[in-house]
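Example record for the data management plan.
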Amino acid sequence: MTSTPPHDVQSVDGNGGVTGDAAPVPQRSGVQAIDRAAAILRCFGPHTPELGISEISRATGLSTSTAHRLLAAMQQNRLVRQTAHRRYALGPLIPQLARDVEVPTALRDLALPVMYQLRDQVDETAGLHELLPSWQRVVIDQVESRQPLRRTYTEIGEPIQLPYGAPGKAMLAFVPYKVQEEQLAVPLEQVTPTTVTDPDRLRAQLATIRAERVALSFSERTPGIRTVASPIFDGTGRVVGCLSLSGPEMRMPAERMYELAPQVRAAAWSISEALGGTEETLAECRADAQPPAHR
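Corresponding structural encoding:
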């Protein structure tokens, strides 16, 4: 796993400006800046995953110029990130820190032995992805291939939109239908030449994924990387994550991907069963994810 290099340590002055290590910050100003940054972080939640600077300013009572300076410093330290249309969302440092200090989750504990076994059988990188309450996904762990040329996830803990790549689509196919439509209503960026951005084409793919419980990505999010993914369900039938197998396209022709699909599906389902998933709860989840006309 490639680690993220540490950022330069910075502090924020009372007006939200960024200062270097050599410049001491008065205690009162520093505390005020922390209070203001905390107030900004509290603006985000399940119903407000993204906010514009005017919304943040109104919610916190800060001037837009002060909010902008604080957000710039928070972005440098990965506490927030900028999304499309100059809006902001929580940054990758927060879930990363939470995962680093919390007791390992049942999902990770149950998935890791399966991931090692899958990697040893296939010698491609196995990835574990978690579905967030914001209807995004994050990579939470990986077991890398032993090949010199291999897939290595470098964005551990960084939120990724569900329509991009096989892991996201494997989960998107099983979330409630209304959520699928909300996700597909957002314009998608052509991040690689093979990125699927057409909503109707994505809907057709999601229908196939629901039937087969396998999603494929032909370098749709990361150039040169192909992925096979299958969803993971909990005891209530909710999709909670997915298991993926990724490698360079030179070793992952379409024929091999189709051959690996049943193996990845079986590995993912073994994790689901360990979490309490059953065929009955899966059927209920699949029904909720279907368009109303197909229920």
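Summary line stored alongside the record: The first helix runs from residue 27 to 41.
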